């Protein structure tokens, strides 16, 4: 018996009946030989961590564009906080932690530079629209590894695609990530807003605080414990009505106080213009795209609009700014 088979046997003994067993995966886009050491979801998690798209998350905006402080969240630290919350819930519910972590680590791989400002810009100029969850699946299916993709399992890809508020992942592990994503960004965005001086403190309206607590720690604990209490031995992941309503209210409050705050979002118009300009530049000059993207057009028969969006969405904030300056800002004349 291989180590992988031993791990799979332990999963059958330890995980709850509704958990997704590694041995029961629906498989990959392309069949592969099993690994002797790692079950399929562990391999998926490892592939995501080692891919370039994951590393680029460290220089992509979460809420505040290219912040100068050292402690603001980026898309990478957001991803890690989602994974931590999701693993805590999955472990308590005896779900598959490897699957949970793989979905969490991969859910934002397709996010644009400048956060949702970049996503709005691409959605506006691309004829087919742009949704970062769908782009994350495209990254793992096709774009990663220079056009080879990561060939992840169906369950991980389903969880990545369906992590949005309005979606319903097929696995309980995916449902855990979906809620953990919301819990994570509401709280760390509030913390960053306090640091930025957008919020004077992290006190939320009393109607919300009375249900889930006054402090960040209390609120996080309330959400996590409520999910565990209401989802144990159930066939779906959910919250009690009062706590879910408090989460929705807190999210709305954050939209009013932070996500649409004129001071916090004062630079987003510039970011959107930058993304649109770069997109139109490369759309009209596909020969200027990097070789790996030109190869995708040639081999996969992809349209220029699609591949141009792939390239622009892959950029980090810093790379996009530097490229814009190189293409559109004149250099000062230097005497020889």
Verbal overview:
With 336 residues, the chain is an all-alpha fold. 62% of the residues lie in helices and 0% in strands. The chain has 16 helices and no strands. α4 crosses α9 (172-196) and α4 crosses α11. The radius of gyration is 21 Å and the shape is flat. The N and C termini lie far apart (72 Å). The mean pLDDT is 94.
Question: Briefly, what is this?
Answer:
The protein is mainly α and 336 residues long. 62% of the residues lie in helices and 0% in strands.
Topology:
Blueprint: H1 3-14, H2 40-50, H3 52-56, H4 75-92, H5 97-106, H6 115-125, H7 132-147, H8 154-161, H9 172-196, H10 206-212, H11 216-231, H12 241-259, H13 268-283, H14 291-300, H15 304-314, H16 317-328
Helix pairs in contact: 2-5, 4-5, 4-9, 4-11, 5-8, 5-9, 6-13, 7-8, 8-9, 9-11, 9-12, 10-12, 13-15, 13-16, 14-15
Treating each run of at least 4 consecutive H or I residues as one helix, how many helices? 16
CATH topology call: Hypothetical protein af1432
Mean pLDDT over the residues:
94
Approximate helicity band: 55-70%
CATH class: Mainly Alpha
- Architecture (CATH level 2) name: Orthogonal Bundle
Rg from Cα = 21 Å
Question: What gap, in angstroms, lies between the N and C termini?
Answer: 72 Å
> Are there runs of 5+ residues with pLDDT below 50, and where?
none
**Overall number of domains:** 1
Question: Could you spell the SSE succession in H and E letters?
Answer: HHHHHHHHHHHHHHHH
**Strand-pairing-aware structural class:** mainly alpha
